[in-house]
Write a structure and sequence with these properties.
With about 575 residues, the protein is of the alpha+beta class. Helices cover about 35% and strands about 25% of the residues. The protein contains 18 helices and 27 strands. Helix 1 packs across helix 2 (about 50-65), helix 6 (about 195-200) packs across helix 14 (about 465-475) and helix 11 (about 340-360) crosses helix 12. The structure holds one RNA strand of 75 nucleotides.
Length: about 575
RNA sequence: GCCAGCGUAGUUCAGUGGCAGAACGCAAACUUGGUAAGUUUGAAGUCGGGAGUUCGAUUCUCCCCGCUGGCUCCA
């Protein structure tokens, strides 16, 4: 049985061998396997850079190496031996130092032509490696791999270290699997929300505002419908919607700790004696509403929601379409509650998230993110908070994985991820338990049954995360064909010819009166062309009307997924479409 | 921010050191149709911005801006 991991790992070595062949003085970083393939990090001799053409050349060299039926063999070595072997490889020496500190067994792998006993660099490629290779390159299909991209990557992932150049490759057991992978990539590219957004006139990005979309009329409908949906759900779940200022004095974020941790990413400017900031977060401001009066234990839980517009000065290189923006709209909320209410609040949040995601056909996966390296507050409080989250997850019989050190600086969190139609993973909801930041730093209190002052806890949560990002995910998930309730245009009315435009207008008017988002197409083009246009705009329903329909007061229905359906009365169609919208069917 | 690539009409792209091009879209006219592209005509450009080299720069060089992929980051 071929082992894919071994194939990929071996290809990483062959890539390094190919690079060394062209640039013998290259310093090697590391070359592990990753989800679909492998990468290898290199530091080229001064003045040399990889270009896309190099990738073609390296692929060719690798194929030649594969065809030589090279053999992989490993050998255990001591730290001293390893240091000698890799004397001119600074990064390997780094690794040797690190591994010896951890008392790891070191080993070296050679890739040599068959029947060679000479292990010199002239005949064999040598790498410090813990193993996991094919025996012979015979096991590698020369046409089932491809070098895909060049990237910069810091040594050991640390920005303070030198930046190496990384070459990524994908690899599979068979050529067919590689082709399937490439086809999927094409599909992903076709579904790119930026392209769909432009084609469907939903939003645009303009040079005058980097990282902030301009929402056009049709896109705003999607945005608004989502907001409406979330508001309705929150109303039902006992939230009070609030709105706090976008621009506030810096001090409030110094108090919360955000300034300390995220100063680089906070937009701020001087105004007189004050420094004002555009809020990067709603949390601290929400406490002012909580603290505006004395709270009794009977007031809790107090669930304050805010569809907040936030600004974060994300580094330019991290921006991308709607997925990462500088102006972000969050479906945020802060739940102020007693310690004995944590479990039930989290349970209802898990249920709320499930209810919301189900509508879009998303399946959830759960992660418990624990205390990060830089954090506020006492370890004991963190332990308490993490324990509470674990209990809530277990109580709800939810399977979860641990995301170590991935918590917020003020508390651990439950992150909910979903998989989209193409199997890609996205993080959406976050449920954070804060026993420190807001409660302690903003001196929150409530009066208990005995009239004594107590400190509440705060659950920070978002279900969609950001509207911008969520819409991006939806567009890719549905390939632009949004569910009826979200579709900017729900129905296109197409009279077959000029003679039937007045009947078409009557149908259109009835739809509009019923609150349906409809469009009437005038008959300047052929019916076929207008159907094509409506299909390309991903309009869910096309109603064709002509002589037959006018006589019977009917509409002829065509659906974007089900194709042409039957002729029914206007009344029946209205009832049907209203029900589908109500049910949020997709 | 860093590494690599890219930036020409609304869009997708071709092209050149010497008058700026195609397709689709758009507009107008004709056509009045039965379930994915009817015909003709036309408008449309600071060739991302600035500087330099040159008789002449959209093309060559440098700087800046923006976009794409990746690294780091993501409260």
């Amino acid at each position: 049985m071929l082992n894919l991991e071994n194939i990929r790992h071996s290809l990483a070595h062959l890539l390094a061998a190919a690079v060394l062949k062209k640039y013998p003085k290259t310093k090697l970083g590391i070359g592990p396997t990753i989800e679909e393939g492998f990468y290898y990090d290199f530091l080229l001799p001064a003045g040399k850079k990889f270009s896309p053409d190099d990738l073609k050349e390296f692929e060719k060299t690798m194929r030649e190496l594969i065809k030589q039926n090279l053999l992989f063999s490993g050998k255990k070595v001591t730290a001293a031996e390893a240091k000698k072997l890799f004397a001119d490889q600074q990064f390997k020496l780094d690794l040797i130092k690190e591994f010896s500190k951890e008392a790891k067994q070191l080993s070296v792998y050679y890739t040599c032509p068959p029947k060679t006993s000479n292990l010199s660099p002239k005949t064999c490629f040598m790498d410090l490696c813990r193993g996991g290779h094919v025996k012979s390159t015979k096991e590698i299909h020369a046409d089932a791999f491809r070098l895909t991209k060049i990237a910069g990557a810091y040594w050991r992932g640390d920005e303070k270290n030198p930046q190496l150049q990384r070459i990524y490759g994908v690899a599979f057991k068979t050529k067919k699997e590689l082709e399937d992978y490439l086809k999927l990539q094409e599909e992903i590219e076709k579904r790119d929300h930026r392209k769909i957004g432009e084609r469907l006139e939903l939003f645009s990005f303009e040079e005058v505002s980097q990282g902030a979309p301009f929402w056009h009329g049709k896109g705003m409908i999607v945005f608004r419908e989502l907001e409406k949906f979330i508001r309705e759900e929150q109303d039902k779940a006992g939230y009070e919607e609030t709105s706090t200022p976008i621009m506030v004095k810096k001090e409030i974020f110094e108090k919360s700790g955000h300034w300390q941790f995220y100063r680089e990413n906070i937009f701020h400017f001087k105004e007189g004696d004050d420094t004002l900031v555009l809020k990067p977060m709603n949390c601290p401001e929400s406490t002012y509403i909580y603290n505006s009066r004395t709270r009794s234990y009977k007031d809790l839980p107090l669930r304050l929601s805010e569809i907040g517009r936030l600004h974060r000065n994300e580094r330019s290189g991290t921006l991308g379409g709607l997925f990462r923006v500088r102006q972000i709209t969050m479906d945020d909320a802060h739940i102020y509650c007693r310690r004995d209410q944590i479990q039930s609040e989290i349970s209802s949040l898990l249920k709320l998230a499930h209810k919301v995601y189900k509508i879009f056909g998303f399946e959830e996966r759960f992660y418990l993110a624990t205390k990060p390296a830089h954090a506020l507050g006492d370890v004991k409080l963190w332990q308490e908070a993490e324990k509470a989250l674990v209990m809530a997850l277990k109580e709800n019989k939810v399977k979860f994985e641990i995301a170590p050190k991935d918590g917020a600086f003020y508390g651990p969190k439950i992150d909910i991820h979903i998989k989209d139609a193409l199997g890609r993973d996205w993080q959406l909801a976050t449920i954070q338990l804060d026993l420190v930041m807001l409660p302690e730093r903003f001196n929150l209190a409530y009066i208990d049954e005995k009239g004594k002052k107590q400190r509440p806890v705060v659950i920070h949560r978002a279900i969609l995360g950001s509207f911008e990002r969520f819409i991006g995910i939806l567009l890719e998930h549905f390939a632009g064909a949004l569910p009826l309730w979200l579709a900017p245009v729900q129905v296109a009315v197409l009279p077959v010819g000029e003679k039937f435009e007045s009947y078409g207008r009557k149908v259109y008017d009835e739809l509009k009166t019923a609150g349906i988002r409809a469009e009437l197409s005038t008959a300047n083009e052929t019916l076929g062309k207008r159907i094509r246009e409506a299909e390309m705009q991903k309009i869910p329903y096309i109603l064709v009307v002509g002589e037959k329909e006018e006589e019977a007061k009917n509409v002829n229905v065509r659906h974007y997924k089900r194709g042409q359906e039957r002729e029914i009365t206007i009344g029946k169609f209205l009832a049907k479409i209203r029900e589908e919208i109500e049910k949020k069917a997709s």
